Amino acid sequence: MPLDWEKARSLVHEAGRAAAPPPARVPLAGADGRTLAEPLVTLTDLPAFPTSSIDGWAVRGPGPWRPVGRVLAGSVASPLTGDGTCVEIATGAMVPDGADALVRVENSVVDDGGLVSGEPKPGPEWRRTGEEAARGEELLPAGTPVDPAVLGLAASCGYDELAVRPAVRAALLVFGDELLTSGPPGGGRVRDALGPLVPAWLRRCGAEVGTVVGPVEDTLDAHVSALRAGLAAADVVCTTGGTMHGPVDHLHPALAAIGAEYVVNTVAVRPGFPMLVARVPGADGRTRFVAGLPGNPQSAVIALASLVAPLLAGLAGRELPALSSVELAAPIPGRGTYTHLALAATDHRGHARPVPHVGSAMLRGLALASGFAVIRPGTSGEPGDRVPFLPLPLLPGER
Fold first, then answer.
1. How far is Cα 304 from Cα 298, in angstroms, rounded to an integer?
2. How far apart are CA 290 and CA 235, in angstroms?
3. Rounded Cα distance, 359 and 365, in Å
4. What is the per-residue pLDDT for 359?
5. Which one, out of 53, 56, 164, 244, has a CA that is 20 to 30 A from the CA of 332?
6. 120 prior amide bond cis, ω within 30
7. What is the mean pLDDT of residues 311-333?
8. Across-strand partners of 288?
């Protein structure tokens, strides 16, 4: 019995979370793209001391003021102890104790006797201690993806290392004797489109892709051997094709041979229902996974978006990828008791319109789309309806 699509997403995400490897502490430079395994907590007040926002003068008492020194960024300021005194100060420098105000250099005048006159602006021209965050305050929760902004924030707090989840290692096995790996299709053979597509997609989901093998010979022994080799090097092995029970579909018997246990086996979604995820116990005590993608390209992409993305998120210690919502600009039919994932393009207003060329064996529509409009079982989509939307994983600057 095919499993409900939303339930399947949750199940594989939970399976990934349960099997997530333990965190490791890595230098900041190695943490980009990983996931925080612990909350990011400030090690000091931010800023740690009052910091000038301007170039100018730190003054005490009424003017004019007599300069008694200079404070540059990176130095410790001596206190201002006498009214009518000031120090020259640079942007980012420590504001001395005893200063009443800062005067911008462009708003000041130095007379022939060296005295400084000027008018401070209302309000302090410096960042107060702890203005951004107090020491011990949680800035980001565990499970936050580490990006350049997170790295900069961590450095500003004083971190040299971060506790992160290890990168998820992925591999791909391409099944099918009918596949060509170069040149145009013909003579009863078709070009392998998933060998180039799947690794690029996995990388956009944060996985490190190592082994790509294929086409794997259409025999049970070859499938078993390829699976064992892939699982020895990866946390998740994706396979393409063989998810049904045809005369050369050996995936299910191969999974049985290696002691795999199904997490999900077929999903009530169209296109792409014969997708699966199975867990495989490792000799080292760690669980690995096999994600069986259908052989038709669009169906394989739907399996990637439906099952592999949540699985990778769970293994990385992240939340289940959230669905956004869109307003339909054109009708999309339902698929009875199945969820319909309809390739659609979105515009700047958040409106979605289905794209053409969306047969399960086609990729032309995928190249035009930004994601899938989700038409739930027993419903259809009409213009003006708001429906969930499953975006394709994209890099900055892509569609």
1. 10
2. 9
3. 8
4. 80
5. 244
6. no
7. 95
8. 280
Q: Exposure string (b/e) for 89-116, b if CB count within 10 Å is 16 or more? A: bbeebbbbebbebbbbbeebeeeeeeeb
Question: Domains, the chain, ranges and CATH?
Answer: 3-21+166-315 (3.40.980.10), 33-42+132-165 (3.90.105.10), 51-127 (2.170.190.11), 324-391 (2.40.340.10)
**What is residue 326's three-state secondary structure?**
strand
User: Which residues lie closer than 8 Å to 254 by C-beta, 6 or more apart?
Assistant: 220, 223, 224, 227
pTM over 0.90: no
With H, G, I as helix, E, B as strand and everything else as coil, classify residue 348: coil
By the 8 A CB rule, do 323 and 344 touch? Answer: no
- State how far the Cα of 276 lies from the Cα of 255, in Å rounded to an integer: 11
Task: Indicate the length of the chain as a whole number.
Answer: 399
Condensed to tens digits (0 to 9), the pLDDT of residues 331-345 reads 999 999 999 999 999
Rounded CA separation 336/313 (Å): 30
Q: pLDDT by residue (tens digit) across 142-191?
A: 999 999 999 999 999 999 999 999 999 999 999 987 776 767 887 778 77
pLDDT of residue 302: 94
